[in-house]
Write the structure tokens for this entry.
Amino acid sequence: MEKEKNDLTRNMLIIGFMMFSTFFGAGNLIFPPYLGMVSGEQWHIGFLGFLIGDVTLAILAIIATCRFEDANKGVLTRGGKVFAILVSSAMVLCVGPFVCIPRTASTTFEISIQPFFPHFNTVLFSIIFFILVMFLTIRPTKVVDIVGKFLTPALLIVLALMIVKGILTPLGDAAPSKIDTVFAEGLVQGYQTFDAMGGTVVAILVMATIIEKGYGEKKARVHIAIRSGIIAGLGLLLVYGGLCYLGSTVSMMYGADIAQTALLVNITNALFGTTGQALLGAIVILACLTTAIGLTSSVAQYFSTLTKGKLKYEVVVVAVCVFSAVTSNFGVAAIVGFSVPILTLLYPAVVTMIVLSTFTDQIKNDNIYKVAGYGALVIGLIDIIDDAIGVPFMQLLPLAKFGFSWVTPVVVLGIIGALIPCKKEKV
């Protein structure tokens, strides 16, 4: 009995740290400091929004996925086959070549290369970066795994030193907030990490690991996912919260127009000088490279499996690398800006399915998922059109100032779905 208890604790720690290291990527470092800087004295309110939009939804996605037998469909399962394919394909493209993969290259260039070699050609760098990604993805080696095992601890040590030094010797006082909707800004910044979408992909790996550890039954899977999620969540809370606080200490020095990557570089330089900046840059370039390799491989495997091998793994890898190399030259700010309409379209549906799937044992009618899921996509599209034509219809709805204007219509649609009889009981 005691041995089983010890094994359970050890496995929860292993899976919790795995979840933490998977979500904690170098690309996400740029969001919390900027949020703290624009939030100023209200950085803790902004960080609360970030915590919900990033950490909470990401871990909830994993826990909800463990409630289903097919992790590939996961939280999208009860929306129907077509819905699951459409939304999951869109999410994979976003987590892959549309946003996250090119962002790794742009972040690497702006943090690791540009500060030391300001005249280095961005096109040349993107070509070199993605040739490496393509070669190591098509012909994977143990080098990537070995390097990856050391990167997260190294990055954490550097960040821990930054945060501790920033708390003991603050760079300055927090200024009044530069924005009116601090919580909503935090929520949006959390969304832009794409961790909630990524959570549905990461859940496949986490669930496979949980089953491999001997927890195959649903109740056991969910139990260990919740405990491991708490461990990962606490780790992310400390790191992101510390970075957000560091941003607030320089809020009097910079305006909202400063680039997110430039802000992180400036904070590192102010705390540790050029040596610390060079160390952070070296770790970021390796961390972003391994992240890009992992994401590219995942995208290629997904579409190769989806098309039953008609799209070859190697062909998808090449296509993703070429597309990402071109996109990365627009820079981090442009890529983040490009992600906003994608987030506006997909996030209501993704969040809706994550929340509903958390209660999948209690909700018997699949039509609740289908009507709310498809409706959330339509609402996201309306929100994009509103922004494009300048008619702020969505801003008139309840909770709009908090970034949740879509919640009320989706709840109504869910109720309508509940009134439509389901042809068969949930299996």
Summary: The radius of gyration is 21 Å. Residues 385 and 391 are 8 Å apart (CA to CA). The mean pLDDT is 85.
